[in-house]
Design goal:
This protein is α/β, with parallel strands linked by helices and about 260 residues long. It is about 35% helix and about 25% strand. It is built from ten helices and ten strands.
């Protein structure tokens, strides 16, 4: 019998407490390459906290995080990123005084281990500049290529953050509400990009999202958190039909 490959990301009894409050309670879940998993639940369910435990922004009180079978629980966020975890934040995480192009160029350069000599060496690496420009085109920011990141509207800042993530080429993409703050016209650009990433069956995508139309259009699998606990896990149709999900999530969302 063939051995199933290790999950791209797995959490085992992962927990975190703040004072007397248990925000994530013994969550065990595995995420495999080629699958887009949406993590949903009402406000305060622990979704973003769980994300922060996976990416390393928070240190677990108990339990473990595994990346391709290796324990990364003690690794800092930067080391997890170098290992292959890419995180797009609900609040943008950019170099505000660099241009759109410089932000993406720096991400390409970082991936290739070229250090931080950003401005002096780029004229010698036209292929890398072209890669940065191609990614900027994919996210629809070519017209704002020279604009400083801090001057971009919020929706364009989200696009730039996705561009940086694409430039880093992680094995695992972590999206925390990727369409938050975007206008109706801007959302399709991000959804199309996530669909394109999903087409690469070697990649794993995990996203937190409140908008059920986004979840239904993207997800292969839905994981539901409620009061810090995993209460449902399965294909979208089966999970959304569960009474606990109707009550805890859909009902809350439709109030």
């Amino acid at each position: 019998m063939a051995t199933q490959p290790a999950a791209a990301i797995e959490t085992r009894d992962l927990s975190i407490s703040f004072g007397g409050h248990v925000a994530v309670n013994a969550v065990s879940c595995a995420f495999h390459a080629g699958t887009l998993t949406a993590i949903v639940g009402p406000n305060g369910a622990g979704k973003t906290t769980y994300f922060n435990l996976i990416s390393g922004q928070l240190r677990a009180t108990a339990g473990r995080v595994l990346f391709k079978g290796a324990d990364i629980t003690a690794l800092a966020p930067s080391r997890r990123a170098r290992a292959g975890l890419g995180r797009a934040f609900q609040l943008t995480n950019l170099f505000p005084n660099l241009s759109v192009h410089e932000n993406v160029r720096l991400a390409v350069q970082s991936r290739l281990g070229r250090g931080l000599d950003l401005l002096r060496t780029w004229t010698r690496h036209s292929a890398l500049i072209e890669e940065a420009d191609d990614i900027i085109r994919q996210v629809g920011l070519s017209a704002r290529r020279t604009l400083r990141a801090r001057l971009l509207p919020h929706g364009d800042q989200r696009k730039l953050e996705v561009a940086i993530l694409l430039a880093l080429r992680p094995e695992v993409f972590l999206f925390d509400e990727p369409t938050a703050g975007m206008s109706v016209d801007e959302v399709p650009v991000i959804l199309d990009l996530i669909h394109a990433i999903k087409g690469n069956r070697d990649r794993t995508i995990i996203l937190v999202e409140h908008k059920m139309d986004v979840v239904s259009s993207l997800a292969d699998r839905i994981v539901v958190l409620h009061n810090g606990e995993l209460v449902a896990d399965g294909d979208p149709a089966s999970v959304m039909a569960l009474p606990i999900v109707q009550e805890a999530y859909l009902g809350a969302a439709n109030v």
